[in-house]
Specification:
single chain, about 180 residues, alpha+beta, 7 helices
Length: about 180
């Protein structure tokens, strides 16, 4: 286990004002299924969950099997899971990772994702040795682009046919922020 992964494991939860980032557990299966079964929500992120078993498998295979940088978004008031933010492709040598996120449609357009990503970036750049966070979104996914811009990520370009989604290669708009950019904004 590398230093960066160890640092992430030492941050199992991240507080924010209305939500907290916390580990996803099997107790969250029904809440995850609530948004993961929605084709519009899953469209840009993962295959649609067709059953509670699919959601349970996702929790076991992703959130619990590799917990470093894997966070559920839960409401502070009742600890209900409403989405997730995940660090993927953690590169220990270059201290960078890819960010992905998803939010239950019932909680979209209320600032929860911006609050969650801001809290995550704050933790990453103040409490770990992370140097760079980047993310990709399909060009038509402007809601995701707005979140990226709101948290200070800058678009660096378009990677053509870079992501295999829905059995086809799609373009990805690359956004990123470095430690220096974040600390100096």
């Amino acid at each position: 286990m590398g230093v960066l992964v160890q640092e992430l494991l030492e941050q199992p939860s991240v507080p924010a004002s209305r939500v907290k980032l916390r580990p996803v557990t099997l107790a969250d299966t029904a809440a995850m299924f609530d948004y993961a079964s929605d084709p519009a929500t899953a469209h840009y992120v993962f295959p649609v969950n067709h059953s509670l078993v699919d959601s349970k498998k996702a929790i076991l295979d992703f959130f619990m099997a590799r917990p470093a940088g894997q966070y559920g978004i839960a409401l502070n008031e009742n600890n209900q899971l409403i989405g997730a933010v995940q660090l993927l492709d953690i590169d220990e040598n270059n201290r960078k990772a890819s960010l992905t996120y998803v939010l239950n449609p019932a909680y979209q357009h209320r600032g929860y994702m911006q609050e969650s990503v801001t809290a995550l970036l704050d933790m990453l750049f103040h409490q770990t040795s992370m140097q760079r966070i980047y993310t990709l979104h399909e060009p038509e996914n402007q809601a995701s682009a707005k979140v990226m811009a709101a948290v200070g990520m800058q678009q660096e370009g378009v990677l053509h046919q870079t992501i295999l989604m829905r059995h086809q290669f799609v373009d990805g708009c690359l956004h990123a922020i470095t430690r220096e950019q974040y600390l100096n904004k």
